[in-house]
Amino acid sequence: MIPDDFKQQLLNRVDIVEVVERYLPLRKAGQNYVARCPFHSEKSPSFSVSPAKQFYHCFGCGAHGNAIGFVMEHQGMGYVDAVKELAGMVGMTVPDVRSPETVRRAEVAADLGTTMLTATRFYKSELRQGEPAIAYLRSRGLTGEIAARFALGYAPAGWQSLAQVFPDYPTSGALKDAGLVIDGEDGRRYDRFRERIMFPILDARGVIIGFGGRVIGDGKPKYLNSPETALFEKGRELYGLFQARAAIREAGRIVVVEGYMDVVALAQHGIGYAVATLGTSTTPVHVQKLLRQTDDLVFAFDGDEAGRKAAWRAMEVSLPLLADGKRVGFLFLPPEHDPDSFVRERGREAFESAVAAAVPLSEFMVRELMAQSDMRTPEGRAALLHAARPLVEKIPAPALAMVLRRRLAECAQVDTADVDELFKVRRSVPASPGRARRLRPAANAPDIVGLLLACLVGEPALAARFDRALLDEADAGSGVLAQLLDFIAASPGIDSGHVVAAVLDRYRGEPLARMVVEAAQAASGEGYDYLADFDHACRELLARRNARRRAWFEAKGFAALSPAERAEYAALAARPNSATLADSSVAKV
Ligand SMILES: [Zn+2]
Question: What is the 576 CA–ligand 1 centroid distance (Å)?
Answer without folding.
Answer: 45
